[in-house]
């Protein structure tokens, strides 16, 4: 299996040219720091949609200790397609309030239809937030790490729709660790088991600290001496998993990406 970390580099101006400039700066960092790095010919791509539940009509927020109304806590649905994770599947990550999260996968060709159902037929329940995409991402093999970098393009649906912008850049770093496993249960279309009781096999723990050190060292090497301007960097690390369950590895990757791409609100 592979362990991975994700770095979201913000683009305060949301200007596309500024975002492309940051991408080029980081690519120079990769090619200069890892002189034996191999640039992969096939680009990677990503598409992401976020939906948030609608506040019920007549909802009265509870009052906090300070006498002020407490903010409403939302539920979310995420639709994520990441070509390097599965070229033909889209992952649906549901985060209902006070209930167990679930992740399922559907065929990529059904992605737009699923989003349309949420947006139009379930509009009383779900509100579209934003759409993000990476069209022509770049990948490198650099020693023990695989590095994927791409510029995010953002669009909004509904009354707030407008021009395309770029909220930032994503740098995804993965490194092999533990044993490989042929189980690809996340691509079967069934939801994952929250308690993990479906399998009765020996599990080997991943050396998380070592894997995280490799990822962080790789990122530090890439950005060393590079001027990122007013950009802020947010780091997300994959949750610990066991080496014999490919489905759990994919689930952890989906959660990490959705947490990074949900943005605020």
From TrEMBL:
<dbReference type="InterPro" id="IPR013921">
    <property type="entry name" value="Mediator_Med20"/>
</dbReference>
<dbReference type="GO" id="GO:0016592">
    <property type="term" value="C:mediator complex"/>
</dbReference>
<keyword id="KW-0539">Nucleus</keyword>
<dbReference type="GO" id="GO:0006357">
    <property type="term" value="P:regulation of transcription by RNA polymerase II"/>
</dbReference>
<dbReference type="Pfam" id="PF08612">
    <property type="entry name" value="Med20"/>
</dbReference>
<comment type="subunit">
    <text>Component of the Mediator complex.</text>
</comment>
<keyword id="KW-0805">Transcription regulation</keyword>
<keyword id="KW-0804">Transcription</keyword>
<protein>
    <recommendedName>
        <fullName>Mediator of RNA polymerase II transcription subunit 20</fullName>
    </recommendedName>
</protein>
<comment type="similarity">
    <text>Belongs to the Mediator complex subunit 20 family.</text>
</comment>
<comment type="function">
    <text>Component of the Mediator complex, a coactivator involved in the regulated transcription of nearly all RNA polymerase II-dependent genes. Mediator functions as a bridge to convey information from gene-specific regulatory proteins to the basal RNA polymerase II transcription machinery. Mediator is recruited to promoters by direct interactions with regulatory proteins and serves as a scaffold for the assembly of a functional preinitiation complex with RNA polymerase II and the general transcription factors.</text>
</comment>
<keyword id="KW-0010">Activator</keyword>
<dbReference type="GO" id="GO:0003712">
    <property type="term" value="F:transcription coregulator activity"/>
</dbReference>
